[in-house]
Design a protein that fits this description.
This protein has about 120 residues and is mainly β. Helix content is about 0%, strand content about 50%. Strands 2, 4, 5, 6, 9, 10 and 11 form a seven-stranded mixed sheet that branches. Strands 1-3-8-7 form a four-stranded antiparallel sheet, with no helix packed on it. It is globular and about 45 Å long. The chain starts with a strand and ends with a strand.
Length: about 120
Amino acid sequence: QVQLVESGGGLVQPGGSLRLSCVASGGTSMSYDMGWYRQNQGKQRELVAHITSNSRTKDADAVKGRFTISRDNAKNTVWLQMNSLKPDAPAVYYCTARSPISGNDYWGQGPQITVSS
């Protein structure tokens, strides 16, 4: 079973930057498609960025040009670089992985991100 451990959440000022990391363990070869979801309080969870096993990326329109997803399979790590953060409601960001064999989805614990002046 794949385990995803996230870090990098916290408080940041509007316009600031944060980088989230997600380390996979449990025997994964990092051949999974990976992504980052976010969920604001009272809102549905939404995909913000996606990266395939061969590093093809796609960003949601809401974050395009500000967020960057990347991965290093040798380190079993996926990052989400978040720049020009807006003073939106607090959100929880979840790292995700999808097995190309079983199709099962795996989720990280979801660190809290707060953007405030």
